[in-house]
Design brief:
With 201 residues, the protein is α+β, with helices and mostly antiparallel strands. It is built from 8 helices and 5 strands; from the N terminus they run H-H-H-E-E-H-H-H-H-E-E-H-E. It has 3 domains: 52 residues, Ubiquitin-associated (UBA) domain (Helicase, Ruva Protein, domain 3); 91 residues, Elongation factor Ts, dimerisation domain (Tetrahydropterin Synthase, Chain A, 2-Layer Sandwich); 40 residues. It is 54% helix and 16% strand. Strands 1-2-5 form a 3-stranded antiparallel beta sheet. It has a two-stranded antiparallel ribbon with strand order 3-4. Strand 3 and strand 4 form a beta hairpin. It is globular and about 60 Å long. The termini are far apart.
Length: 201
C-alpha cells in the first residue's frame, strides 16, 4: 500500500475533479489503490453508494419533469425525477442528473425503471424463448437453468433503466449514478417514470 508521502498532490487534484470528493477522501482512496486513479474512483464510488443506501427509502414528494429532444427532432423523452425538497429540485446538479437520464432513455430505449415493473407476461415470454434455446444446446438440465438465468439477467440489463450501463461511462449503471448523486446531494432521489418518443412509432 502506498504511503501518504507517495501520493502526488496533482493526482489528488485530478481525482477530486473527477469525483467531487473531499481532499482527504481522495488521498485515502489513492493510498488504498496504490495511486491507481481508476481504482481510487471505484473505491470512492463504493463508499458513496454505501452512504447513499442509508438515505434511500425516504419520501420523495418534490422533483422535476425534464424533457430532451435529440438533434434532428426525431427522438425525445420525458423523465420525472423526484427528491425530498423543493430546494434540491431547483439545483443545477439535480437538473443535470435529470437531463442525463432523459438522454439515457433516448439512447438505450429502456422499457421500465426497475425490473419489478416489467410485466410478468414479458418475463415469461423471454424465459420460454431462453429455455427453448438452452434445450437445443443439449446440455445437462442444471447447466440449462444457469444459461436461462444468465440470459434473463442480460435481458434485464438491456431493458431496465436503472440496470443499464450509463451511456457516458459503461463502468457505471444508471442506478449507480443515482446513488452517487444521493451521496453528494444528501437526499433520496427516485426515477419515478419516463416516456420515449420516436417519430413514426
Amino acid at each position: 500500500m502506498a504511503s501518504t508521502k507517495d501520493v502526488d498532490i496533482e493526482l489528488i487534484k485530478k481525482l477530486r475533479a473527477k469525483t467531487n470528493a473531499g481532499i482527504l477522501d481522495c488521498k485515502n482512496a489513492l493510498i488504498e489503490s496504490e495511486c491507481d486513479i481508476d481504482k481510487a474512483i471505484h473505491i470512492l464510488r463504493e463508499k458513496g453508494i454505501a452512504k447513499a443506501t442509508k438515505k434511500m427509502g425516504r419520501e420523495t414528494g418534490e422533483g422535476v419533469i425534464m424533457a430532451y429532444i435529440h438533434p434532428g427532432d426525431q427522438l425525445g423523452s420525458l423523465v420525472e425525477l423526484n427528491c425530498e425538497t423543493d430546494f434540491v429540485a431547483r439545483t443545477d446538479e439535480f437538473k443535470e442528473l435529470a437531463k442525463e437520464i432523459t438522454m439515457q432513455v433516448v439512447a438505450y430505449d429502456p422499457i421500465t425503471v426497475d425490473r419489478e415493473s416489467i410485466p410478468k407476461d414479458i418475463i415469461e415470454e423471454e424465459r420460454s424463448i431462453y429455455e427453448e434455446q438452452a434445450k437445443r444446446m443439449k446440455k445437462p438440465e442444471e447447466v440449462q437453468k444457469k444459461i436461462v438465468e444468465s440470459k434473463l439477467e442480460k435481458f434485464y440489463k438491456d431493458v431496465v433503466l436503472l440496470e443499464q450501463d450509463y451511456f457516458r461511462d459503461p463502468k457505471v449503471t444508471i442506478g449507480d449514478l443515482v446513488k452517487e448523486k444521493i451521496s453528494v446531494i444528501g437526499e433520496n432521489i427516485v426515477v419515478r417514470r419516463f416516456i420515449r418518443f420516436q417519430v413514426g412509432e
